[in-house]
Specification:
homodimer; 22 strands; EC 1.2.1.26 (chains A, B); 2 domains; 5-stranded parallel β-sheet; 7-stranded mixed β-sheet; 2,5-dioxovalerate dehydrogenase (NADP+) activity (chains A, B); 21% strand; alpha/beta; Ald_DH_N (chains A, B); 517 residues; Aldehyde Dehydrogenase, Chain A, domain 2; Aldehyde Dehydrogenase, Chain A, domain 1
């Protein structure tokens, strides 16, 4: 573990990474931390916060850029270890590394642009009647130390130096990462890159720590520590809900940003099906099986009106699934859960199995894609069992008799990260408009004529949505708006200029954009 | 009750307003609502939401302005009833009416300015390598129907058409108000003014409802209803925490914005005391006793270094308290709680009673101001008992031996709405700078050389702070930023222009400010 500047060998139950393609254990052992390790990391973070939160946007931008460079400097060592621990192909991990570094640099740009501070100034009006107005100045400041839980499915971009860490550090919050136990070696490599940046930038050591723990104890203890002021999490619904409960039960409740569960409905509209049912079927299966379907935004539900064109789509998708090569899943546990979820759908009397992908008996933990079908009336009889997320390449097609059934399905859907519409802009306009209007209340992102599995890191992205997609629909965990999760407003009234924080001083030394009266 | 367009007479336990100055009951009776009434109001709000959320900023601004005009048109009828129900003087209520109408008009201006929508556009980059970028457009949309709990101490500005209602309606959320049982007649008058505005503006009836209920059942049932998506509350810590628990335990947890408990520390710095100890003592008591001390921002704690100048301040404050006239408190219950809180402090062995205000045996429920003193070491032995909020004109002075004790006190303070520094900009600069840096982590607003009891409604105000001051330190309940509590981001990807919401269309029909690449 990396607790501030110190290398600390844990003393608790050991984590061993496993190569999921071979089920072979990877050296070394990573023993877990104790409550004392949690307390030490939290106290260091609390100390560091008083210094780190007052660094300039430029200093923090330089720090993020240094982290990016240090991660890139790890070269193939990082990519190879991440591939061994996750079963993900090298090319995918190279792309993910680019995304991780690009994300850090995007937050550096955002820090310099300064919109995040949302500075608002209402100058004094001493002559106002019946009462004068004081000088009031508002800035957003960081909430305090943040705990980040790394995700299994993006060992770089949503893990130790992923989006949660980058946005919290950008906001001015020290970060303690609880490493995901599926990729401890990758976590250590990236953790050392972050720590080196802390030291190279002359920041207090408590700005970053990395802890290991085999069960939920280290994580739960972290979330309970009074120094911790917010939590970022990407993972299962059970895991996220457990953290939400712990955070709400603290003497001082704190916000949890958990990105958890989504089945990402895809609506095939009649005009689009008429035009290109066959191509759509093939494109859909490509999105479904990419990365063994291990994406939060994997299209797990297809909703369409019954028609001959839908049959063409289904036949095209069926063939594509049957030809789809198997792929190694991230961990034996994830593979087991996938098999169990697929088995439940297969056994359900109201569900027809349309296709399974290729088997590969020579490798372990293989995802053999699955495509299912049911009718809307059957789905609505048991929406909780049939609408559950099966993490991996599994999708359920729901055939509807009429538009009323489509809207009834939406009504019964839980909150989602995304909804997708395949549409013809002219012929489907009326139905699409009504769908978009309803779907906006259920999801964080609506897209047309594409697949939801790509999540662009930019200003206008929302990777969020109503519960259980996330714990807080007012937030996004991807894109520059992710920083806003870790900021809170403070107002300064009639404070002498020399005593104001730099963002609010009359001379505006940080050159932030400001709303003045 | 007003449930959409219908007048509904409740069937449950009756609420009767009481004139606190005389303890006389005021007609008429207000029988409470049932679970069916809650369900009806919630369903109407849900239906109305689909229409109301798509109204233009201009339409919502006009609606808010109409509410303001309708409230003003109630004239003396409103002021007289509010005074009878609250014991507050007419002049204070006239000022509060101005604040309420001004607040509605401020949100109308903010709607037209359009910053709240935070529109962000990243245009398509079809030629980008290695992957093209889709067209991405983000806007903030309303979260859904909101329940507002009126506060006792501002029967106009924080009640039926107060800051929570105004900001939620501005955001595009229908509002159901649970009326405060202390001023049901005032609530009905204002509720009818809001409902008339709904009708005059041709909005769906479910945009606004007003319910009565004598206990916590109507409120709890409202917060549990699946159509409700957020809660605004101003009141006691126990009441707010109960709502937080209910909201967190829902199948779909929802945000609660509760403004609860704050003792608003005031720091008297040596330079300021040297200059004007006597005037400060008098000014402080004026702030302490204003409105019988029934403000969230009432200065309940004075912290200073032991010195002869502090003695001068204390003597001045002592005299001012002893001369302070008594004032009628809002309700017999609030008066009882005040008496009990003051009695506990009086009986505490570590506390010295410096002064009590004038008695007035001829009126009921009189607040007789109280000023107490203790030492920092004693306070730190029992910070929870001594740091508790006594709602009303009660304040505790803590004498410190040195600066270390001052910072130890800050460390032990819970989250606060405000902290105040009386300082000399030159002589106290060093200590003030260190205090401001620490206090920013504990409070929502820091002010110098004033008293915290005035809360300006403007862009740069924060009426919020870490728990237990509020349930969510990322928010403010006063000022234009209060709207942000009821909005969430949604991203649109590659949606044809004609199908986009107006805020995101290429022609920008609502003329909103937009961040474009």
């Amino acid at each position: 573990m990396l607790i501030g500047a110190a290398d600390v060998l844990g003393t608790q139950a050991v984590i061993r990474a496993v190569n999921p393609a071979t089920n072979q254990t990877l050296a070394p052992d990573f023993p877990g931390g104790t409550a004392a390790d949690v307390a030490r990391a939290s106290e260091l973070a609390d100390e560091a916060f008083h210094v780190y939160r007052q660094t300039s946007p430029e200093d923090r931008a330089t720090f993020l850029e240094r982290i990016a460079a240090n991660i890139e400097a790890l070269g193939d060592t990082l990519i190879n270890r991440a591939s061994e621990e996750s079963g993900l192909p090298l090319a995918r991990l190279q792309g993910e590394r680019g995304r991780t570094a690009g994300q850090l640099r995007l937050f550096a740009r955002e820090l310099r642009a300064g919109r995040w501070a949302d500075v608002r100034i209402n100058g004094a009006l001493p002559e106002r009647q019946p009462l004068p107005r004081a000088d009031l100045r508002l800035e957003y400041i960081p909430v305090g130390p943040v705990v980040v839980f790394g995700a299994s499915n993006f060992p770089l971009a949503f893990s130790v130096a992923g989006g949660d860490t980058a946005s919290a550090l950008a906001a001015g919050c020290p970060v303690i990462v609880k490493a995901h136990s599926a990729h401890p070696g990758t976590s250590e490599l990236v953790g050392r890159a972050v720590r080196a940046a802390v030291q190279e930038c002359g920041l207090p050591e408590g700005v970053f720590s990395l802890l290991f723990g085999s069960g939920s104890e280290v994580g739960q203890t972290l979330v309970k520590h009074p120094a911790i002021k917010a939590v970022g999490f990407t993972g299962s619904r059970n895991g996220g809900v457990a953290l939400m409960k712990t955070a709400a039960a603290r003497p001082e409740p704190i916000p949890v940003y958990a990105e958890m569960s989504s089945i990402n409905p895809v609506f095939l509209l009649p005009g689009a099906l008429t035009q290109r049912a066959q191509a759509l079927g093939a494109g859909f299966v490509q999105s479904l099986t990419m990365g063994a379907g291990q994406f939060c935004t994997n299209p797990g539900l297809i909703i369409a009106l019954r028609s001959p064109e839908l049959d063409t789509f289904l036949e095209s998708a069926r063939q594509a699934v049957e030809q789809a090569a198997s792929a190694t899943m991230l961990t034996p546990g994830i593979h087991g859960a996938y098999e169990s979820g697929v088995a439940q759908l297969t056994a359900h009397p109201a569900i027809q199995t349309l296709a399974r992908g290729q088997r590969n008996p020579s490798a372990s933990n293989q995802c053999q894609a699955a495509l299912f079908k049911t009718g809307a009336a059957d789905f609505l009889k048991d929406p909780h069992a049939l609408g559950v997320e099966v993490f991996g390449a599994s999708s359920l097609v729901i055939e509807c008799d009429d538009e009323a059934q489509v809207f009834a399905l939406i009504q019964h859907l839980e909150g989602q990260l995304t909804a997708t519409l395949w549409l013809d802009a002219d012929k489907d306009a009326d139905l699409a408009r009504r769908l978009i209007s309803r779907l906006a209340l259920k999801v964080g992102r609506i897209l047309a004529n594409g697949f939801p599995t790509g999540v662009e890191v930019c200003d206008a992205m929302v990777h969020g949505g109503p519960f259980p997609a996330t714990s807080d629909p007012r937030s996004t965990s991807v894109g520059t708006a992710a920083m806003l999760r870790f900021l809170r407003p403070v107002s300064y009234q009639d404070i002498p200029d020399a005593l104001l924080p730099p963002a609010l001083q009359r001379a505006n030394p940080w050159k932030l954009p400001r709303l003045e009266d």
